[in-house]
Amino acid sequence: xxDETTELLYPSVGKxxxxxxxxxxxxxxxxxxxxxxxxxxxxxxxxxxxxxxRLLRSYAPKQVYxxxxxxxxxxxxxxxxxxxxxxxxxxxxxxxxxxxxEVLTVQELEEFKKT
Length: 115
Prior knowledge:
5 helices
């Protein structure tokens, strides 16, 4: 397996966090330009969720974990907290709790919330 193939199949925590942040930004812009229900907005949101799940399944709870964001307004959210700063970030954006419950098993949720 080449280094490029390895990086594609097993991206680092840093690479996944970069992708999550970039896709989250694109999702917000798509919502502003085309509305929340546009195909681009929905696809961007779903891609962000997939990347977050990949980050959790690959690196939780040793390098990243879920914690409820008690300061969030509106819908209950998890923050994907990083144990070590990556760039200037200590989290990999937010994941709505209702989405986490849809895409993760009960066992995964419990394991990923270990601090």
